[in-house]
Every structure is written in C-alpha cells, then in structure tokens.
Amino acid sequence: MKARDLMVQVDALLKADDELKEYIEKIRIVRSKAETQGARALPVLDASGIPIGVLSMKDILKAIYPPYMYSTDLSLFTWDGMLESLAKNISGKRVSEIMSSPVITVKGDHSLMECVDHMLKHGISTIAVVDPTGRLTGMIYECQLFFAIAEALTGGKGNRK
Q: Is the pTM of this model over 0.85?
C-alpha cells in the first residue's frame, strides 16, 4: 500500500496570514465529516499550493501554555479560568505564528512504512502528500495509519474509517 492509497483529500486549507479563528472554524467542519474523524491538523499553503506549515490542535495547546510553566511547581497556580484567559491572549495571532514548520512531506508513491518512520522520527501525527511539483494532494493522519495496521493485524477484518 502506498501513501496515495491512504491519504485524504483536504478541502479545508489555511494561509499563513489567516487568523487562528479560521483554523477553529475549519477543523470543526472537517471533524464533523465521518471520513476525516482523525483530522486534528490542517495544511498551510502558499499561493501556489505548496505546503509551508501544518497547524494542529497540539500547536494551539503549546501556544497557550506559557514557557515558564514547564519549570514551575504547578500546584501553586489557581487553575480556574486560566485556560480561558490564556486562550484570549492568542486570539489575535496568525496561523504563521503558531504553525509547525517545515512540513514533512511524502510523494504519493512512497510506502506507508516511510510515513510511519517520518511520524516517529519527527514526533508528528500528520504528513502532507505532495505531487512531483511539491503541491499538496492530500494528508495522511496518524489514525489512518493506525487503522491500516489494525486491518493488517486482523487480516482485513477492520474498517479504516
């Protein structure tokens, strides 16, 4: 099986100068569709359709989590209302300020094992599939790879959706 066999075509695309609210609106729509349940990230494209970043739910979580909290005794904090307050602090940011970049890509004829290799080595859960010119053709999400593995483990008795 190749990357093109598992990839999902993504209609919800972001531009670097979009506000984070655009991501929130689009990811809600994408996640409401049964065929893309695992989508937690959206590609960020330049004007020619080449992926320049990926914005994920994890990127948003990292953006609201202040660096000083990594080395602080968190029992000293009052947690009530903190998430809401920190979320408001990033509400005016642009996609380019939060997105993960550079984008890890594969071509459609690359093996699924290569996708697994990239995900593990780079600590990512989404890979962009590009054509020979570098333009986005689809995305592979971690959950799709998991269900492909599950299908192989069960002898094809699973469903990738």
A: no
